[in-house]
Amino acid sequence: MDVFQIINKIKSFLILIKDFFISFNWQEILSVLKTILGVVSVLLFVGIIYLIIRLNFISRAKEIRRVLITPGSFPRKMAKKWNKIEKRLKSNQEAELKLAVIEADKFFDDILKKIGYLGKDMGERLKKINPGQMANINDIWNAHKIRNNIVHDIDYKLNEFEAERAIDAYKKALEELEVI
Questions:
Q1: Domains (range + CATH), the chain
Q2: How far is the CA of 88 from the CAs of 78, 109, 139, 152, in angstroms?
Q3: Nearest in space to 151 (alpha carbons), one of 116, 91, 101
Q4: pTM summary value
Q5: Which residue, 19, 98, 129, 136, has fewest beta-carbon neighbours within 10 Å?
Q6: Residues 47-66 pLDDT 10s
């Protein structure tokens, strides 16, 4: 085989490759690729926004512990208040159970205010929290509804199970925020 034969074989191979690529309908392929890449871009954008929101919530919760409250006094004060609430819960008297739920709700609402959630009442602040920001937000809503029933309905009967469930919801959320 001489050099000219090798060059001719390379030429014919390159012509085959060129014909292969020319045979495609590139406008149609590029149109599909643009659509796919557009969808991927939107999904990535939504993911970035979600992460920004999630990280902002976590950093705000940690910032409250670091900046707004003096180190050392915050955990003791919070623990003391929370222990008082749990003591009321253990009394098994309906009046004490009701007070425990009301105080836990107020305690949690104060934390939300300090973290930076705005609103005229706790209901508005809770609306600004989504399940991605707080794992048990639905349980917090149920606990807050129990608190509202206690406050607005004089004849509302609160049993131990409901009270424990409400206090547990607040406790889990406070632990997630690393308050108690």
A1: 3-43 (no CATH), 69-176 (1.20.120)
A2: 16, 19, 20, 21
A3: 101
A4: 0.60
A5: 19
A6: 988 887 777 776 666 665 55
